[in-house]
Amino acid sequence: MSNALKVSGISKTYNAGKANALTVLDGTDLAIRPGEVVALVAPSGAGKSTLLHILGLLDSSDSGAVEIGGVDMTGKPDAERTRVRRQDVGFVYQFHHLLPEFSALENVVLPQLANGIPKAEAERYGLSLLQRVGVDHRAANRPAALSGGEQQRVAFCRALANKPKVLLADEPTGNLDPATSDTVFSALMELVRETGLAALIATHNPELAARMDRVVRLENGKLVAN
Ligand code: ADP
Ligand code: MG
């Protein structure tokens, strides 16, 4: 089966050519199949966020290739990268980054409208996602009225709203207390399992990492199997 996500030889140096140059990624390789959930583990500052942003087409690498759903994104024009990012990649941050002026449901509906889904259909699917992670009773509330765990559940739904091929999550429960982190992570895993997408989830938490299919560690700019 083809890979949902494949990266080869990804390198990234910040401030290249200057005295403070910092090589964060140094020829990193990774392949994830559809339905596979992979933990990305490394200490703070190792380059997890840098890698996730490059994989999510939010940033560019200096060299190497990123393939999403079998399509090599290297050298593709910005418009094509934006289209693939919107359609095929879901991104979850440590902080929810929901739009404060919109309700929970609207936050899940808006990305679908941007992709041309009719409003009634977008609302129906958005509500079904909120239902699956147990926050549909908060659909009409703005993010500020939700708890941290509820905010992250809504953020998961938003990330999955356009049925992406790949989910990238950057320490998605890192901002929650341990008990909430555990239940919110379970909700995320259920959602991922149901949709069958490929996921790469950065975490500091060894217990959460152990619940994924496999663990990769970012060491000296390269990914190694745990
Ligand atoms: P992690 O997510 O694992 O904590 P990051 O990818 O955020 O690591 O950062 C890796 C390293 O790159 C850190 O030393 C960080 O300070 C540095 N870094 C991140 N972004 C930039 C940037 N835009 N310019 C310069 N250095 C950066
Ligand atoms: Mg980070």
Structure report:
The structure is a single chain. This protein is an alpha/beta fold. The chain has a single domain, classed as P-loop containing nucleotide triphosphate hydrolases (Rossmann fold). The protein has 7 helices and 10 strands. Strands 6-7-8-3-9-10 form a 6-stranded mixed sheet, sandwiched between helices. Strands 2-1-4-5 form a 4-stranded antiparallel sheet, with helices on one face. β7, α6 (178-195) and β8 (198-202) form a beta-alpha-beta unit. α5 packs parallel to α6. The longest helix has 18 residues, at 178-195. It is globular, with a radius of gyration of 17 Å. The mean pLDDT is 94. Bound molecules: adenosine-5'-diphosphate (ADP) and magnesium ion. Magnesium ion binds next to α1.
What ranges have pLDDT less than 50 throughout 5 or more consecutive residues? none
**What's the helical proportion of residues?**
25-40%
- Second rung of CATH, namely the architecture: 3-Layer(aba) Sandwich
Shape: globular
**Spatial order of strands in the largest sheet:** 6-7-8-3-9-10
Strand content of the residues, in percent?
A: 25-35%
Number of strands: 10
- Tell me about the biggest sheet? 6 strands, mixed
Helix and strand element order: EEEHEEHEHHHEHEHEE
Count of discrete alpha- or pi-helical segments spanning 4 or more residues: 7
At the first level of CATH, what is the class? Alpha Beta
Query: Average pLDDT value?
Result: 94
Tally of distinct domains:
1
CATH topology description: Rossmann fold
Alpha-carbon Rg, integer: 17 Å
CATH superfamily, by name, is P-loop containing nucleotide triphosphate hydrolases
Q: Which hetero compounds are present in the coordinates?
A: adenosine-5'-diphosphate, magnesium ion
Please give the alpha-carbon distance between the first and last residues. 23 Å
Structural class: alpha/beta
